Amino acid sequence: MTLPTPPQPLTFPALTFAKLAPRPFLTAHLTSPSGPLRPSGRLPSQPRAPTCNAGSLTHANGSAVVRCGDTAAVCGVRAEILKVDDVAGYEGREVEDGGDEDGDEDGEEDEEERRSEEREPKRRRNDRDDLARLMLLVPNIELATGCSPAHLPGGPPSVLAQTLTQRVMRLLLTGDMIGLEPLRIWFRPTEGAAGATGDERIGGDGGEMEARRAGDEDGIAKAEVKAFWVLYIDVLFISLDGNAFDAAWFAILAALRDTLLPRAWWDADREMVLCSDEVAEAGRLVVRDVLVPLSFGVFEGEGMGVGEEGREEGKGRWVLVDMDGFEEGLCREEGTVVVGEGGRVVRIEKSGGLGVGVGEMTGLVELAVKRREEWMRVLGML
Amino acid sequence: MTDRRRINGPPSGTSPPVFASSLSSKVFPAKRKRAPDELRKIFLKTGLTPSASGSAYLELEPSTPTAAHKSLATKAPALKLTCTVHGPRPLPRSAPFSPQLSLSTRIKFAPFAARQRKGYVPDAGERDLAAHLETALRGVLIGERWPKSGVDVVVTVLEGGEDALWNRGQSSDGGRTGGWGMMSILSGCITVASAAIIDAGIDCIDVVTGGVAAIVRQPTAPPQVFIDPCPADQEEIYATCVVGYLQTRDEITELWTKGNVTLSIDLGFEHLLDQAVEAAVAARLVLIEAIKESTEIKVQTSRIGHPKNAAS
After folding, report:
1. Would you give the DSSP letter of residue A276?
2. Which residues from B are below 8 Å from A82, CB to CB?
3. A271, A295, A319, A374: which sits with the fewest CB atoms below 10 Å from its CB?
4. What is the C-alpha to C-alpha distance for residues B119 and B14, in angstroms, rounded to an integer?
């Protein structure tokens, strides 16, 4: 709007109006006779279409660039090695039988009688505890990239950045997306000799896995976890126009699905972990579930007063899904619904008001399920 | 000095993976396939961050396409930079009076930008680069037109040139070749920041672009001057020179040379400088093209009245 326009003294461009009186501006849009429509042209329940480009960064094990409207984020997942010897007070869990030393009431004998599928939830819980205790997932969200005028570098991370990081961390851990098994680096005595020479061990991966599995069940070969992969998950915002959480999460999800972990083994002679640089031998990280958040805000219209026809205008309450920066500035009540496979509700966060009841929340969960389909299509899973 | 505001990972620290192939003495030879005076392909686009006054993205392709690689250790990195410009805007009331536009530049590497994971706290190298960038840009801005105002230029390095490959990173060679990658990054930073400043509509006396040239050892022939050296090419470099150059005024706003420059004619400082200027002139063509493109889009959207968000 920089071109010289003929002077029109009594009208303003929409942009000026939005800046001068944002609340009536948004109310006017939502109460327009043609139905509620947001300034961006979206329906209140219509999220922005995401785009995703995975695997574009060279130095990251997995990466993704995600754009939702004017919000764009880059996520890089970087895997580094944590030796168990370096962990203070590390006590190895018996991985094979799923028993734990944390003092559960189940004895060893009961444990053996159980079926493996019965043990599965417990193993998952143990894995989740270990992930959290060893701090194997390290997400950080950086907003201070000049992604919006409110976020300039040169200070500690903003409150928003810290909150986002913590929320992402919690969802990563409670959502049970990543198992511990792909992050374990094993020492297998039988293959130690072969591992040391490094170059000759090509194409033996399948057999080796078999060998380990067999060894595990018999308990003969003393396979031992010597190290873990630590995933540093860094999200940088290139551009921020509202709904940072959804964009950050989507970037993380896409980057994790893109993550390639090199085949790694413990070299007993060198007492260090070595990796194979063959792309063919590297393993894709398994992401168990696609958790999809849907953030929303509740806008309460006010301030329009009595309209020309005598009816009261601007009263109402709208649930706006996937808000942009302008709308975020006007909504006090905000929240997020996270759904997983089959419409499983993983997490609900909401704060700031009483506008959303059970009925609205049910509707939002349905929207989130739809949003999940959209994301999966973008990720190429549907 | 643990940073309690971020998540730091295991307290005992972690180590980057070591590839078994890097322990053997296999060294990949230098492989520059470009001609000595040929630049890498430049991709430049403005307007990536709508909420900033100006923004730009620059990418320099790796010399060898990554898809061809079968090894995780020898993937060739590209150079990827984003830049946002905020302002000019009034300085805070507490700031002392400044008759000119006060420029502040920041360069930050993403944690995944280089082979070594970088922390979030700015290190000396980043501050050094930012100071060089500030020098390069200060010479083009017409600062008198904005008294009592400030402008922030923020460059984020998403992927940076790397000094050595994995294979060499462990060897004794690593230390000697250190630091050359920074020179290419600075050259890219100058170009991308220039594009973002123009996108922000800040008055400049000319368009500044960055160029870099290096004296490179040849295995069989005498050393030669290459423009736009790429760290992934595994060249052995004697000296590098970066310039920020204004073509129409034939002026240099920033000059940074490092290494051993001999006094001979075809390898001397003058020649190296000329070649760096050459590179800057070539980058200028791309920059002008990108600006034209984005200006056309801007004009079009303002004509049809683009329903832009009011978020500021």
Report:
1. -
2. 10, 12, 14
3. A271
4. 13
Nearest of A43, A13, A20, A38 to residue A28 by alpha carbon? A38
Establish if B22 belongs to a structural domain.
no
Residues 36-75 of B with CB under 8 A from A: 48-52, 55, 62, 66, 69-75
At residue A329, the 3 state secondary structure works out as: coil
Helix (H, G, I), strand (E, B) or coil at B277: helix
Report the half-sphere exposure of A226 (CA within 13 A, side-chain side).
17
Residues comprising chain B, all counted: 312
Strand order in the sheet with A292-301: A316-321, A292-301, A333-339, A345-351
Range 314-343 of A in CB contact (< 8 A) with B: 324-326, 329
Name the nearest CA neighbour of A135 among A71, A231, A48, A50: A231
Both tokens of residue B286? 């791309």
Cβ atoms of B214 and B230 within 8 Å: the answer is: no
- First-last CA distance in chain A: 41
**Measured between beta carbons, which residues in chain B are less than 8 angstroms from residue A136?**
10
Per the domain annotation, does B15 fall within a domain? no
Residue B255: its H or E element: strand B251-259
Average pLDDT score over residue span B74-100: 88
- Does A152 or A76 have the greater pLDDT score? A76
Q: Is residue B27 in some structural domain?
A: no
Secondary structure of A4-56 in the HEC alphabet? CCCCCCCCCCHHHHHHHCHHHHHHHHHCCCCCCCCCCCCCCCCCCCEEEEECC
Q: Can you give the CATH number for the domain in which B56 is found?
A: 3.30.230.70
Phi, psi at B182, each rounded to 5° = -60, -35
- What total number of domains does chain B contain? 1
Structure tokens at B274: 């000329």
Q: Which two tokens stand for residue A40?
A: 């961006």
Give the number of C-alpha atoms closer than 13 A to the C-alpha of residue A322, restricted to the C-beta side. 26
Cα-only R_g, chain B: 21
Lowest mean pLDDT among A251-265, B162-176, B190-204, B287-301: B162-176
Contact B243, B133 (CB under 8 A): no
Best to test chain B binding among A26, A70, A145 (most B CBs inside 10 Å): A145
* pLDDT at res. B33: 77
- Helices assigned H by DSSP within B14-93: 20-23
Q: Report yes or no on B134 lying in a domain.
A: yes
Q: How far apart are CA B161 and CA B164, in angstroms?
A: 9
Residues of A in contact with B113 (CB under 8 A): 59
CA distance B35 to B37: 5
CB contact under 8 A, A81 and B14: yes
Residue (of A61, A379, A84, A65) closest to A231 by Cα position: A61
- Which range of residues forms the domain containing residue B116? 42-93+100-307
> What's the pLDDT at A369?
94
- The total number of residues shown for chain A amounts to 382
Q: Give the tens place of pLDDT for each residue, A180-216.
A: 888 999 888 765 444 444 444 444 444 444 444 444 4
Q: CA B296, CA A217: separation in Å to the nearest integer? A: 68
Contacts of residue A76 in chain B, CB cutoff 8 Å? 110-112
For residues A345 and A337, the answer to whether their CB atoms sit within 8 Å is yes
